[in-house]
């Protein structure tokens, strides 16, 4: 299970699934004035995860959402940009996320003006409706391990019962609420798992 420290974070997103095979989850938002102490609940929303549930051993193409604790990355999507301080990039048809394990660009965001199918065997276009409001979940990046999994985002769902390819999804208004709530100085983190895992990753949130 991938775990990052929350020593300095003052914002935590907790995604709890009932078990490893469900596609449904609950998202809660927590913040603290002093990292690790005095946490308080500031919001909650229904969420969805991978179409094949959760896995502590995520692999490319398995349809599962990785369990663990991950830093949040830049927001992206269509205009208008959310209000607030969280970094956000407006994407167009030159923005791709590479999920070809045989490429040196694996699990990275690339802007490319040529034919993507001639450069990569597999890729995600970022200028698509589900990503009209989204944020990167910083999974498998330090170091990037080829085949471990890629393109894990928090983005707009197709519906509460629609599982993703491995991302965490929610209603558009809830994705936007998170994007406008997060701030760089709070170093937000997302903890994902069943209740048993979250007892280790975010015990105060249960």
Quaternary assembly: single chain
Distance between the termini: 20 Å
**Strand content range:** 25-35%
Q: What structural class results from the helix and strand content? A: mainly beta
DSSP helical segment count = 2
**Could you spell the SSE succession in H and E letters?**
EEEEEEEEEEEEEHEH
What are the low-pLDDT stretches, counting only 5+ consecutive residues below 50?
A: none
Give the beta-strand count. Answer: 14
The radius of gyration is: 16 Å
Envelope shape: globular
Mean pLDDT: 93
Biggest sheet character? 9 strands, mixed
Helix content: under 10%
How would you describe what is shown here?
This protein is mostly beta strands and 206 residues long. Helix content is 8%, strand content 33%. The protein is built from two helices and 14 strands, in the order E-E-E-E-E-E-E-E-E-E-E-E-E-H-E-H. 40% of the residues are buried. The strands form three sheets. Strands 1, 2, 3, 6, 7, 11, 12, 13 and 14 form a nine-stranded mixed beta sheet that branches. A three-stranded antiparallel beta sheet has the order 9-8-10, with no helix packed on it.
């Amino acid at each position: 299970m991938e775990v990052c420290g929350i020593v300095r974070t003052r914002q935590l997103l907790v995604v709890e699934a009932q078990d490893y095979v469900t596609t449904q989850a609950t998202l809660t938002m927590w913040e603290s004035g002093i990292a690790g102490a005095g946490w308080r609940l500031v919001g909650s929303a229904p969420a969805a995860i991978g179409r094949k549930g959760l896995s502590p051993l995520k692999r490319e193409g398995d349809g599962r959402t990785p369990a663990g604790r991950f830093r949040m990355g830049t927001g992206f999507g269509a205009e208008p940009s959310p209000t607030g301080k969280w970094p956000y990039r407006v994407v167009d048809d030159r923005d791709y996320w590479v999920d070809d394990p045989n490429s040196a660009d694996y699990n990275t965001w690339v802007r490319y003006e040529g034919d993507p199918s001639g450069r990569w065997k597999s890729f995600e276009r970022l200028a698509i409706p589900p990503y009209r409001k989204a944020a990167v979940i910083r999974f498998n990046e330090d170091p990037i391990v080829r085949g471990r999994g890629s393109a894990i985002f928090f983005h707009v769902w197709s519906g509460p019962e629609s599982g993703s390819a491995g991302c965490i999804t929610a209603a558009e208004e809830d994705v936007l609420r998170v994007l406008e709530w997060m701030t760089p100085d709070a170093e937000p983190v997302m903890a994902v798992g069943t209740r048993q895992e979250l007892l280790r990753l975010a015990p105060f949130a249960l």
